[in-house]
């Protein structure tokens, strides 16, 4: 039974003078919240301040900053430690295979996490620490090994092992962390704030990527940090680690989560409307006497039959791998079609982005990463890699700009139009780059990459939110209680994010061999072909809620 407005006010103890002053200032907001609870039977999260949504988006800024550093330097780092060509594809295979297998498990686990800090934030913190560890290993692996091992052959072998391990750990955590971040946003925001939050995510993703690529384009060897540290890679690690730690801390303090152990609707509602100025731990809010006595009154009312409190059983909280697979396979068809379209998008996007700096160095600038490091060919290749960083920076800036253009276009062309345009422009731009590999035309067309990037980070997750909203509305119309059972927002976001890992697996198996045989030019041609196929799928197969 839902806690009604009258019973709620009867259950409240007389507030103190200080609390009364604070409560009076938010009386209208609480009244609106109470009406929402009474009408729908489910608690709608209150409106979030723009500042809190910006703080929540800082995780995407830090993640994309580190991603940009990896995209710019991972290929040169792997080649500089002497990684054999036949192992290159293996680097891109290990992490996505692990991610594809474990991502739904983590999504389900976060749906049922009973930590007092919340369901999503413990996973976000853990994955953030793994990201830092992976980045430290792949940017500093050769320096670390040379400090402990003196023999040159052993140095080379262990440098390759440590660098590969760092790349795998970083990719694993950076891909994983996106699912809990999106589920965290969906848990604590209303439908309107979810849309705003996703646009802020796209905005800060672009800004983080732009600054990350700019960091890679700067010659740090001639700066104070360059003279203080051993190598340029250590300078990059110091800057990236500092930025990520700050962003992750701000994100984790952005919006409080309601722990699963307080999942009954009455308590969740109290946690939302009481002491709205506080953004500390939910546990701290419950410990204050006002809320504790209120909960006591509600408990007494429940025992006397005035309201009913429901909770999940332990069997519902614990999903075995078998039941998890059954849940994934039983997803409605429109969820599966959305996942397939997301797979096409990431296959196209990653096949271009992972090899873009190498493409600029080898195809556009006609250099070679395998030439002696003091040769003209190698220096030309290095200049092409730096120019590729500027191209990726243009992509990131255009992604941020387009995230705001999306808000303007959405009322006119809808999610279907936004989805289709993103794939179409990316397919055309990569095709033109492959046909005409010129420095200036390539840099100009990089601006269209951002359209695809912003689309992939917003539209599919907006569709997930629309699907959940539609399902909740149908349940309410049928008189059912709106609770997450079996398949929640976490596992749906995880299933969508799994497509990133699956795209990496496909590219690691197929594209790596094609690059060895035909060169880097095949990457942009492949990206164009897959994106244009994705256009057709987005137009005819994906379901859009009207």
UniProtKB/TrEMBL annotation:
GO cellular component, one term: membrane
Principal location: membrane
Composition bias, Basic and acidic residues: 19-32
Localization terms from the record: Membrane
CDD domains, sorted: MFS_SLC45_SUC (cd17313)
Membrane-topology descriptor: Multi-pass membrane protein
GO molecular function annotations of the record: sucrose:proton symporter activity
Keywords, in A-Z order: Membrane, Transmembrane, Transmembrane helix, Transport
Region (Disordered): 14-34
Organism the protein comes from: Athene cunicularia (Burrowing owl)
Residue spans crossing the bilayer: 65-83, 89-110, 122-139, 159-177, 198-218, 224-250, 343-365, 385-405, 417-436, 442-465, 494-518, 524-545
Protein name: Solute carrier family 45 member 2
